[in-house]
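Q: Structure tokens for this one, please.
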Amino acid sequence: MASSFEKRLSRLANSSAGSLLAGGKIGLEKESLRQQPDGYIAQTAHPQALGSALTHPYITTDYSEALLEFITPPLQGVRKSLEFLDDLHCFTYSRLDDELIWATSMPCIVEGEHKIPIARYGTSPEGLMKHIYRRGLGHRYGHAMQVIAGVHFNYSFADDFWPQLQDLWQDRSDPQSFISAGYFRLLRNLHRYGWMLYYLFGASPAACKSFFGDYRPRLSEYNETTWYEPFATTLRMSDVGYTNRNIPGMEISYDSLEAYINTLTRAIETPHPGYQRIGVCVDGEYRQLNANVLQIENEYYSAMRAKQLPRNSEKPIHALQRRGVAYVELRSLDVNPFEPVGVGEAQARFLSAFMAYCLLQDSPPLAGEEQSAIRFNLSQTAIRGRDPSLRLNRDGREQSPGDWGKEICQQMAGISSLLDQHGETPRYTAALTEQQEAFRDPNRTPSARILAAMDQGEGSFFHFARHRSEAFRDYFHNHSLSTEREAELEKLASESLLQQEEMEARPAPDFKEYLANYFGQS
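A: Here is the predicted structure, written as tokens:
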């Protein structure tokens, strides 16, 4: 008997909605540290030639002044998104002098917290808020954790896909409610199957010892400069990496849009005793925006988030309340050091098909027992995902990552075939096959390839990362932009600087009043 998933896929494939499945849009956000040729984090300011980090739509900074963030607009088709990201790297490298764009998620070399410059965004209230928010992150979690880089994969289905799907599923709810419910259906399954992405795309099995300072992590020693785990996939997503999920009050529900908003609001509005001890404004200097569990929504470091674009100074949570979910932000991807832009075409095609799989698969609410199993699966895959003896918790029974992953890939075959029929390039099945091979042979995963390269002569994680960074620097220096794109990005850089100047010249309330107005929105 066919499963409910198979029935949904069959009905989709035989309807007009099937052809619309390939119309999804992809937006990529890729973080990368600017580093000196010797591997130390750059101490220079964000290059003015790149424009204003506050107002530029595509080139900005994340936590640190040295942590570049490249953002593509939502574009239909994998190639368009990757080409846009490639152009942003090419434009940036032509204006960096001798600095490197670091090719890995884990940084090298960290000389202590004081050597990690917090990003600055000027003197406008908006710019000060962004800076003080980051200052708060440093007080709460330390500076080093904040300079771990990653890739965010933002995905939305085509606007005209949703009404066709709603008709196909004979759903009579409000259209906006149906779309939001669909995205939360997808998000719950991203939690359930997120361990697959750690296994397939994790690319941080090792880290420089300098990242940890005097702290001795629960990791194995590779050599005098490197910590690692022999079967690790993504230290970045493990407990030694980029996380705040174990903080009390951070229990966010994905059972519905309403539950998500209510639990996120509670975290934003609930004081945290430890953060209260830090203080908010001490001796006239702001240490953080507030002393709540989350200062703002962005501090919720989940592996995935529901998103809606805010308008003007609208709070993100209000945007979700008013207009529902517009797209899903997948945040669990490491920077791939074997791809010049940190993410590959086959990877992006697989992720597009995976999003459809998570939408079509059964997705009941996440109960307590299942949430515990999900946490176990994620933590174990991050630290020892390629261990032949590893068994994950699948509905209360044990199963190897390889067997479970191959089964899910087999179920995804119909989706990949459908995307091949209607997509811009028929390569989704090939991308799926590539990941199936990685489940059959763990040595094909990026994490295994990194350790193999270190074993074959790189000598340490630092030398591996610098070698890859230098190779990509040469790649982008030998790769010229089209005249049109060069002019477009030059214009955006100039316009963003003028926009920041105009913002700083406007009459504005004092910062305390600005914050009160922002957080007082209803």
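A few notes: The mean pLDDT is 94. The first helix runs from residue 4 to 13.
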